[in-house]
Amino acid sequence: MDFEEYRKHDAVGLAGLVSKGEVTPPELLEVAVSRMAAVDPKINAVTLDLTEAGRKAADRHIWG
Hints:
Elements: H1 3-6, H2 11-19, H3 25-43, H4 51-58
Helix pairs in contact: 3-4
């Protein structure tokens, strides 16, 4: 999934895609992390980067 597709959904919509097996939480996380990396240097909004904690949580395979 790319960011243009990601941004069309709210959290409930993204969860629905996960439950249907169309995307995985790690895939969604990487889209969000990529967008953060692209945008944050311009707006300096991220005060605490929890990317690694998110990756560990997403890798636990507790969805579905």
